[in-house]
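Q: What does the assembled structure look like for these inputs?
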Amino acid sequence: MSGNHLLEIKNLKIDVRVTKKRRLSIVDTASLIIEPGQIIGLIGESGSGKTMLCRSLVGTLGRRGAYIASGQLKFDGIDLISAKQSVWNEIRGKRIGYVPQSALAGPNPVMTIGAQLAEAILQDENFPKADLEKRSLELLNIVQIRRPETVLKQYQHELSGGMKQRVMIACAIAQQPQLIVADEPTTGLDVTVQAEIMELLKQIRKDFNTSIILVSHDLPLINEICDDTVVMHAGTTVEKIPSKSIKASKHPYTLALYNSRIDLVVPKGQLKTINGQPPSVGSWPEGCRFSERCDFVKDKCRVKQDLPLITIGTSHETSCLRYDEIAR
Amino acid sequence: MKLLVYAMTKLRGKNTVNIIEAKNVSVIFDSYGDVIKAVDQVDFVLPKGQTIGVVGESGSGKSTFARVLSGLQLPTSGSVTFMGKPIQSGRNTYEGALRKEVQMVFQDPYGSLNPRMRIVKAIAEAIRQHQGLDKKASRVAALDLLESMGISNLDAQKFPSKLSGGQRQRASVARALSAQPSVLIADEPTSAIDQSAQAQLLGLFNDLIKKGLSIVLVSHDLGVIRYLSDYVYVMKDGIFVESGKSEEIFNNPKEDYTKKLISSIPGRSIK
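A:
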């Protein structure tokens, strides 16, 4: 079965080196499966491990002093955990494109945009250099940058935030990858550009059957574009649910996130916030990690135990022990 | 437009004091021979205690305009006044006691905090500078402020690089608030914050508005603008194409551009 999935993450555990001997888990028991052509939304609060999970897919965990401690990570049948640098060179940027979270600071400050695009395009060694400028302009046109000829000569500090982000997306799609990991690609962009970029991602999926992991804080956005939504909390995946039926979620955390949307209240009305703060890395509670903030909590939730995702419907999995008692 | 601003000011109540007024402000940049009019002869008023939203596409000039209001960018022409006094004298802006009255929260949280200072120390220093508290009291005040922004005492001891993007953004809002300003200019304050933290931050902004803080909110997020703003300016290519009361703009937009912006809000269908 597993051979058919484009990406299969199973019980992934990512640790970070704090000191020589001390290790901290930042992602623990994360599971995710993506089929070709599927768009998956990944949501959760800051610090829940979304970005680290994304980084594990492009093999750049090491730069943050992190590493995969255990679990499975397979891309198109290739085991990425034991992959050597030569394998990564064939995958990173070519088969898995990455739009980093800090796209605002993403482009290299001492390279022109043209030089950076050239770097992305020339990862394919067979690409004819004569066509370089044409392809660069084509990519900038795909991401709808105005005055592309001028932008090629400019540096990142001369571009607005939205333009920088579009340049990063242009770099990510240069090789027409099978999977695009977009870590908050539209954060900082205005809604019209966001709508255009979402259209663009949908078009790329349609044209090339590309799978997309879309990390975002924007629940309405995820609902609109993604097939399935995966919810992360404190380093674990707590629910996987078809985006259309997110209102029928069977996890209190997903429901709390849904209810904190500002478009559900009148201007200056009382916003529903989630109780307390997300637990800090290294001080996760035992048992269910949402237990300290949960309105539905019972004593059994606090008992030390593994909470795997339980399948409760068509592509609907939850880790809540009391899922059958939750009504919205 | 000048007439409109005048009428607008009158309409919003005779007792309203305009805390910031911008008249005929232009900012022109030169880029590789192209003359870019980032802001083109705009008028703007911020009445005391109100929240004004500025929306527009990226590159429309809203960040530049916010920088002009906060005194970080000198306008090519036109003038900005704070409580009737010009903010600019020569190449300086907001001199003396005015300095702490207007504070800004930047689009990029990475750039607003000293990477070599623990969060609590950075905020405590700002508090000591602006409020004249001693070292110990400023530290306590900093921890309190950070707590109210959703940053726990444990996280407050960390360096900015050890915080997540959302926490860092909240810390930079805390830094701006540490000067106890009367005007807060927030340039995309919620763009890197997750939804539950955004709800917390907006709740806090709401409390600050109730306490009389005037806010200029520059955001691409129309949901945030709708939630907080009393009055909205819509910016396109350096000019305000439409302005009006928040509910009028959102319920009955007149310009095609505003209609396009509002129709792009995701998820309107799944309410």
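Chain A has two domains: 38-57+84-226, 229-328.
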